[in-house]
Amino acid sequence: MPPKRPSNGFIVPTLPSKRLRPEGATAAVDPIRAESERPASPETSPANDRILRPRSRTVNQAPGDDKRLVPEEERMYGRNKNGTENTHLIVFEPGTQDWARIYSLQNKKYWRCVGCRPKSIRAEFHGNDLYVPLTRFHQCQLKKYEHIRKDQEKVEKRFANACSIAEHIAGEPEVAIKNHIDNVHFNHPSSEWLRDRCDSLGVEYSTKAIQLWAKCNIEEIKTTSLPEEAEADPSTVYECISSLFTGDKRSAGKIEKSWTKNLSSGYKLLQQFAGHNFAKMSRDNNKILEDIIFANDITDFHLEFMARWFQCRVGIFEANRWKHFGNWSSSDYKTITILMKKEHEKYQIILTLD
Ligand SMILES: [Zn+2]
Prior knowledge:
alpha+beta, 10 helices, 16 strands, single chain, 354 residues, 4-stranded mixed sheet, binds zinc ion, 2 domains, 8-stranded antiparallel sheet, Cathepsin B, Chain A
């Protein structure tokens, strides 16, 4: 039976090859790499080069005279804002190491200039050779490499943090996770925290989100706490997260899509969870993963993944008991806390506890 697909039509891409570590999970084994260690050219990562070669028909056609050949030392791979490796291609302007343009891998097929509006401004691989449009065909301005480098460092750092926290959680004996401590602090997010998460999800932050969080009048969660007040409108989890991050439900669809996509590429963040060792799981033809990723309803795997990805803790009150996701084995004044209750397959944001 073919895997179920979400109604939004999003199809999770298959990973290119076993030789490549799955996207999104690499930082767990590969801590932040110093800039000097980044591949200066695809030659340092031949497998990547082979895999990332676009499959569009243009590959076999000769490049037009509107394009120039990029010497290998004038290009490098980078990460997109979700932290996925080898999805950006940084191409230096000829004769300079200070100015560059970024091309982003779209649908695993073609490389599009991120600064230009028309999607047709693309870089093309012909075998190992990379061709990019001549400067006069770009509408965008060159970017300072210094800025590109700093942006890259930021996404690498954010991703490495997410992974190290996941490892920390996975490293604890499972008993410790289940026997969480009795009192855990409820922590509200900063606007910076929310903005960061909105960036990762590709949705727009609004200060309305902070206004909703202000209604969460909770200081501490005890094992005996019961939900009291909740945000009136029962919703899907995606709608709740949309409200908490952007102030209204309108971004739920985008959040669902982005969540699924990141779970598909970054499932290794789950490490050891619910009897599975995700860290050692291959993405190829994996029935367990397919079932989780394409499940019709949100599962514990989704919630645990979100808690690790966003470095928060999530508590769901369902059938008179709490289910915990993320780190509940220690209390601090830092880890953002999201509490929801579930009734009749609908969720509500919890505002106060009894
Ligand atoms: Zn451009």
